[in-house]
Each structure stands twice: as structure tokens, then as C-alpha cells.
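Please fill in the sequence for the structure shown.

STRUCTURE ENCODING:
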């Protein structure tokens, strides 16, 4: 098995450790990070409120947020590469919660420090007020806010006390200068579990170390680890769907077999993920040879490695192709992991890698009824404000679609002539990597098979075929990134008790 995509090189990791503690999912490092912040010490004043014992909640108080519950993991789930979870919540009254205002003598304050697992965590009262989930502040059905952040007065202050409600340790907050329209008896409650998660998530996001399960592959790796899913299992079993989508997220490619011979089958397959993405090609489209084709894919010619719709502002995330007819020789499909090639390029030439991260390439689709135009670099990286060198960053997208390139619009001559030549040299190096025999996975889709792949990562191509000797017909559709990740997170929460966003693993919430 290949190892997950490394996000930071060993040198960068060492640099991080010298500049500040590397934040990971375990609470130990979170404690250490908290203890190093000097302003927390000054806020941590010993007051009578800090020594308050938990007291039962009144029946009229708003209901607290539900705590998360993690179902038992199966063997396949425990093998997923995730960072360690924080230690279980302590039930010691003095160790779990000891809220303290940033002023002594219990006066209202703009910041509140809460002792969680024996360590102080400080929270801005704006954050605590904005996150209120009582029925006055959040609709219980839609889970949507009933006020605006901009409604919160800038001089809002609060004091709080520890309470226990239904066996859960919580803080109850009383507001001074509350949002206009709220009565003086309005109270906000936050569970200690929720505050712990919020604090840990902030530290992880600020730490800049991304958790990423993607696995880079060449021909040998994907041949060993390729996944085939039966259509009936995909359609009927959520656990199978979760395993399949997790694999698709890691490797960027997945195959289905025994798909019914129907033009609607690809709609049903995509519908298990969510809403289909409709483009100017339609909700679905046919890849078959025709005269005067408006797209090179609709010809029998050789079609090189590329991605679809890079001339749009948000190209589709998933592409699905269902083989309805495969009755001619030729037409084999090729797939290549562009992330693997980009990482190889980074290792071989940091200069070429940086060039592809910065040089603007124009893509277009210019026809009498449609005119799309967009410029983007070949390699897009996740933003990372601490470091300016792009070679230190994780790959977000790769953009490579030579058939749909338009003329360059920047750095085309004069003082920028060298820049264009640098791009040409980098493009040569990258193309050699993506098309190298050891990096290409070749497969001829048979009738009743469907391939799903990440259009922002996996390049696809097709050999030429003889359209006069038989029919080759694929039915295709797209699924957007938001739709895919939404479904994946729903299933992650259900089967693993956690979910991933922005490179940070978060516990599931009810």
C-alpha cells in the first residue's frame, strides 16, 4: 500500500517545530499550546466564581446542545488513517469546568476563561454569544440562526457559572448589553464537550498542518488497490457506499460493474451521491462519434490526457461514464494521477513546480451559442499564510486540458519572454511524468461498467477507434464538489463518529 499524501516535507515540519508547536489532534499538544500563551495566565484570576460548584439547571432554561455519540467501529473503519482523538472527558468537577471572567470579583467581562481538563481555554464573549443555540437564537427545525452576528453589540460582556444538566457539565452565561430585543433573562449554555471541540478545532486550523487521506498512485499502485463495486450494492447499501466514496476520495477513481443497460443508470448512480450538476452539455450527455462534432470527445480521434470544463469558474468535481456500447476495436481509456506527477515534479525540480503554480494558462470554449473563458495556473495549492513558498504547500487542484487551451494572455513577450519559456520547459517536464508508461492506468470499459473519477485530479484520455466497425457509446454526467463532500461527511459521521473539513478532523455532533 502507498502511504497517504504527505502534506509537509520533513524539512518544513522541522521548521514548524522551531517556530511554534505543531498542532495535531491529540489534546496533549493543545494543552501545551494553551499553556504557552501568556495572556491566558493573566486572565486566569482566582475568584469565587472560579471555585463555584456545578449546580442543577432550572427547568425553564433553554435546552443545551446535544453531545456527540460515536458508534462502534468496524474493522474496515478502524483502518482509516485519522489522527488520534482527544482523551475522554474528565468528570472531575474542578477539572472539567471552572469558568472565570477576565476581571476579578465576578464583574462582567469581554473574555471568559474556562478550565477544560485542567487547562484554561479563553473564549471571546462575541463567539460565545454568536454560537448560542437556544430556541430564541436558532430555529430548532432548520438549525439556522435567528439573528445576525452584526446584531451583537461591540460592548457586549458576560459572566458565567458552572451548571450540570442531564449529567453534562456546562457553562451558563448571563449577558450584559445583549442583542437588541432579547430579554434580560436570556441565558446561553454551552457544554464543555462543545467548547473543547471548538477550541481544539481553532488550534488545529491555526497550526496549519493538514490531515489528508489522499493516496498518490502510479500504474502498479492503482492496479493493486483498485476497487470494483457491484451496482446493486452501491444502490442498496449505505455502508458499501461509504466505503466506495472513501476510496474515491483517497484514490480519485472507482469502478462499478453489472450496471443495467439503461440511459438512466448513470443518473441513478450519481443520485446516490446527490444532485447532478447540469452544464451546457445537459444534465447527462452522450460520448459517441458524430459528424461536425462540437467537442473532440465526440469524434473517433485520439484524445490526450485532460480534464473537463476548465474554462468554467468551478469545474465539476466528479465525472461518471457508463459504457452502454463497446462494440468496436480501440477506444481504450487511460487514467493518470496528476497529483502524483506534481509531487514527482516538485521532487525533481522545485523551479518547474513553482512555475506551474504561478504561470497563468487560459482555457476557453468559444462557439456561436456558448462562450466560456477562464485563466488558472496548472497547479493550485491550499493557502497557507505562514509560509510564502508554494513548494511547502499541499496540492488542492491540478488544471491540465490541452485541447481546450486558449492563447496565452499574459507574459507573452518582451520582458516576460523568459517567463513563458520557463513555463514551456515546466510543461514539458510535467507532460512526461503524467504520460509515462509506469504512471498510466489503461482500461477498456466493457458494456455494463461505469467509471467515476475526480475530474480535478485524475486525468483521462482515450485511444482512437474505428467508428465504422461498431458502436462505442458512453453516457456521462457530473457531480459538484459540494455535493460529493456533503454526502461523504454525512456517512463519515454515521460510521466513524467524525468528519473532515479544511484539513481538520472534527467529532460528529447530533
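FILLED IN BY: designer on duty
SEQUENCE:
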Amino acid at each position: 500500500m502507498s502511504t497517504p499524501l504527505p502534506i509537509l516535507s520533513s524539512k518544513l515540519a522541522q521548521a514548524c517545530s522551531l517556530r511554534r508547536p505543531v498542532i495535531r489532534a491529540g489534546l496533549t499538544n493543545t494543552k501545551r499550546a494553551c499553556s504557552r500563551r501568556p495572556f491566558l495566565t493573566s486572565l486566569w484570576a482566582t475568584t469565587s466564581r472560579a471555585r463555584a460548584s456545578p449546580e442543577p439547571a432550572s427547568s425553564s432554561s433553554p435546552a443545551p446542545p446535544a453531545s456527540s455519540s460515536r458508534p462502534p467501529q468496524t474493522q474496515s473503519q478502524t483502518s482509516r488513517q485519522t489522527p488520534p482523538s482527544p482523551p475522554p472527558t474528565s468528570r472531575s468537577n474542578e477539572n472539567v469546568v471552572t469558568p472565570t471572567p477576565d476581571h476579578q470579583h465576578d464583574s462582567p467581562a469581554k473574555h471568559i476563561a474556562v478550565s477544560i481538563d485542567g487547562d484554561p481555554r479563553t473564549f471571546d464573549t462575541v463567539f460565545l454569544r454568536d454560537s448560542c443555540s437556544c430556541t430564541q437564537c436558532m430555529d430548532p427545525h432548520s438549525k439556522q440562526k435567528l439573528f445576525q452576528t452584526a446584531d451583537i453589540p461591540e460592548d457586549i460582556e458576560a459572566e458565567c457559572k458552572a451548571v450540570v444538566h442531564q449529567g453534562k457539565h456546562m457553562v451558563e452565561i448571563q449577558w450584559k448589553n445583549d442583542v437588541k430585543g432579547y430579554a434580560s433573562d436570556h441565558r446561553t449554555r454551552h457544554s464543555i464537550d462543545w467548547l473543547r471541540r471548538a477550541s481544539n478545532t481553532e488550534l488545529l486550523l491555526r497550526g496549519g498542518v493538514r490531515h489528508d487521506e489522499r493516496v498518490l498512485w502510479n500504474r502498479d499502485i492503482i492496479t493493486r488497490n483498485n476497487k470494483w463495486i457491484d451496482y446493486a450494492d452501491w444502490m442498496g447499501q449505505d455502508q458499501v457506499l461509504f466505503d466506495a466514496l472513501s476510496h474515491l476520495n483517497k484514490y480519485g477513481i472507482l469502478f462499478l460493474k453489472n450496471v443495467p443497460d439503461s440511459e438512466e443508470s448513470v443518473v441513478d448512480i450519481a443520485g446516490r451521491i446527490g444532485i447532478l450538476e447540469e452544464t451546457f452539455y445537459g444534465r447527462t450527455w452522450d460520448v459517441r462519434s458524430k459528424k461536425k462534432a462540437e467537442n473532440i470527445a465526440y469524434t473517433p480521434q485520439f484524445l490526450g490526457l485532460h480534464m473537463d470544463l476548465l474554462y468554467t469558474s468551478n469545474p465539476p468535481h466528479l465525472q461518471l461514464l457508463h459504457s452502454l456500447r463497446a462494440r468496436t476495436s480501440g477506444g481504450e481509456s487511460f487514467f493518470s494521477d496528476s497529483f502524483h506527477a506534481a509531487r514527482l515534479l516538485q521532487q525533481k525540480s522545485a523551479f518547474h513546480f513553482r512555475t506551474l503554480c504561478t504561470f497563468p494558462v487560459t482555457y476557453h470554449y468559444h462557439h456561436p451559442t456558448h462562450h466560456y473563458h477562464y485563466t488558472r495556473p496548472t497547479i493550485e495549492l491550499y493557502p497557507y499564510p505562514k509560509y510564502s513558498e508554494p513548494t511547502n504547500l499541499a496540492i488542492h487542484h491540478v488544471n491540465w486540458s490541452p485541447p481546450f487551451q486558449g492563447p496565452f494572455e499574459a507574459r507573452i513577450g518582451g520582458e516576460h519572454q523568459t517567463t513563458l519559456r520557463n513555463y514551456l520547459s515546466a510543461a514539458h517536464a510535467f507532460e512526461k511524468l503524467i504520460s509515462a508508461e509506469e504512471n498510466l492506468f489503461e482500461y477498456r470499459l466493457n458494456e455494463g461498467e461505469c467509471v467515476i473519477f475526480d475530474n480535478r485530479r485524475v486525468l483521462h484520455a482515450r485511444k482512437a477507434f474505428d467508428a465504422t466497425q461498431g458502436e462505442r457509446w458512453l453516457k456521462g454526467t457530473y457531480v459538484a464538489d459540494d455535493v460529493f463532500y456533503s454526502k461523504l461527511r454525512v456517512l463519515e459521521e454515521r460510521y466513524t463518529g467524525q468528519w473532515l473539513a479544511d484539513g481538520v478532523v472534527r467529532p460528529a455532533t447530533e
